[in-house]
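Trying the structure run again after the queue cleared.
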Amino acid sequence: MERAKVNQNINLEEYKDIWVIVEQREGQVLDIGLELIGEGRKLADKVGCKLVAVLLGNGMEDKASELIKYGADKVIYGESELLEVYTTDGYTKIISELIFDRKPESVLIGATTIGRDLGPRLAGRVGTGLTADCTVLAIDETDGKILQTRPAFGGNLMATIICPKNRPQMSTVRPGVMEKGIFDESRSGEVEKIDVSLEENDIKSKVIEVVKSAKSHVSLTDAEIIVSAGRGLGNKDGFEMIEKLAEAFGGEVGASRAAVDNGWIDHDHQVGQTGTTVRPRIYVACGISGAIQHLAGMKESDMIIAINNNPEAPIFNHAHYGIVGDLYDVIPEIINELNK
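Done. Tokens:
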């Protein structure tokens, strides 16, 4: 039976520490878990509390110990064959029971397919709020609450949300937005294995088979160099030139929503609020105006190079280097130089 969905007369002083839910697939920790540890470490240091990583799966002892090296003060892990593959019921039961028992002040979850399923169910079970798809997390200097910022109203503004009365404060965080925790072999901490009380009857939906589709040829999240194009490209054929530039750079091809909506390229290539959030070393924006929805997905790039024939394009306000000119004149020259 689920707990009541509203916490009444809650004592905020009982809730301590920042938790991150670390996601694994086939026994491998996903990068988003390490990103949450990296961001959680900063928040915990500001608040003066512990950073606790929670990891569920099967045969996860080595991975649990490794999370200490990435910045966690403590790792709570549970093992069961019923946790090897994610199920809403199984993971919600174990994690919600931990929350009720241990009372964390904040819980961070990756905004992955799994996290977007798990986060709302956990929030409903424990009776708290959830801020989805956060791109910025900060600490309010006055009272220590987490300031949870996310795009709102179609990305036309950024909303900062707080959870003043309920605990834990819960957020899902977009993959690729935060920096990973730095691996430090010398770090030590506590690793606790919990007893998992989970039976097959607790899980209403059964995973019969995991069918893997062919891997997409584009992996924007891991790319160190991305060459993106937008409406300024003018037509689908222009992406042949963009592909040549990306090849010359040794990078991947990205796109704005306008290019995807026009049918010029697949959604897998889309960067931005409704696409993929990226943090490459070099991001080349070709014919992209720089709308806030696109900037939300790439503004943390180490270096941004903008090519646009409009000197007033907003993208130039965020670019480290800007080239004003017709991209069909500029890009071939860049390709020629790179190929030399």
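The chain has two domains: 12-202, 225-339. Worth checking whether this holds up in the mutant runs.
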